[in-house]
Amino acid sequence: MHLLGAYSLLLAAASCASAVRTIIPKTSFDSQANFDADWAYNYPWGTDHNGGARMDKGQVKFSNGMATLTAKKVTGQKDATHGGKQIKINYLSGAISAKEHFTVARGGGYDFSGEFKATTAKGTWPAFWLTAVEGWPPEIDMAEWKGSGKISFNTFNTSSVLSWKDVNYATPDQFHSIKCEVRDINQRDVSVKFYMDGSLVTTQVGGNFFGKAMYLIINLQMEGSSGSPGPSSDTLYQVRNLEVLSYNP
Ligand SMILES: *[C@@H]1O[C@H](CO)[C@@H](O)[C@H](O)[C@H]1NC(C)=O
Question: Which H helix or E strand runs over 82?
């Protein structure tokens, strides 16, 4: 290669590298200090949501780049309230939420990726998802497991207009890599590409997701959409090599 070719290649590499920023590095589960820089405990709105588990800081452990969320059966908890309904709390479990909010900007977007060991047993409902900071939607379920032996990938335009893809999840005892590419299309909608174990599974479109801030949540909810009763023994949900890259300008 002649000198000019090498030089322009170097320039291209440099401009490419500067366009991508690491928002959450793969080391965020290495220590309490690293964790605290990027994550908070529980849901952004508190300890309860739409299932039979109440989130509790004590159910979250991390070390050597891996987070472990554990759901344990409990009694004596007061009910949760969701959508005007009372929900019986049968578990304490773990949830973590990114401190950063994610807003797709013009010509930009994000890659969310990690390796997950998640159960598909009845009554267990692990998830890796994005949801609106103000109002709702946007919601993108980058991976969720609803106790049916499958993994689900969903994008909600409204509560009744959604794209979804359910895929068989053959080896829940092993880690599987998940990646979700979220990109601006037209300064109104965003494209969402879902990958599992390195292969593109489905592409969906989030209508009017552009410019709307989203929370990133990793949680082990129980029962609810996964059926009940859930297991009486402890349930583990593990995540490693979690990374968020920004392509926003
Ligand atoms: C959501 O809205 C986008 C933009 O209008 C559209 O392309 C997509 O098909 C919609 N999704 C569903 C499930 O209708």
Answer: strand 80-82
Neighbours of 166 (CB within 10 A): 15
Structure tokens at 194: 């879902």
State whether CATH 3.40.1190.10 applies to domain 22-246: no
Q: Is the peptide bond before 25 cis (omega within 30 degrees of 0)?
A: no
Q: What is the pTM assigned to this prediction?
A: 0.93
157 CA distance to ligand 1 middle (Å):
7
- Reduced to 3 DSSP states, what percent helix, strand and coil does the chain have, rounded to the nearest 5? 10, 50, 40
Q: Give the tens place of pLDDT for each residue, 62-99.
A: 988 999 999 999 999 999 999 899 999 999 999 999 99
Distance 76 CA to ligand 1 centre (A): 44
Ligand 1: does its nearest atom lie under 6 Å from the Cβ of 30? no
Within 13 Å of residue 201, how many CA atoms lie on the same side as its CB?
23
Residue 139 among the catalytic residues:
yes
Q: How far is CA 68 from the centre of its chain?
A: 14
What is the per-residue DSSP string for 33-54? HHHHHHEEESBTTBS--SSSEE
Q: Is 227 in the pocket of ligand 1 (CB under 6 A)?
A: no
Which residue's CA lies nearest to atom 7 of ligand 1? 205
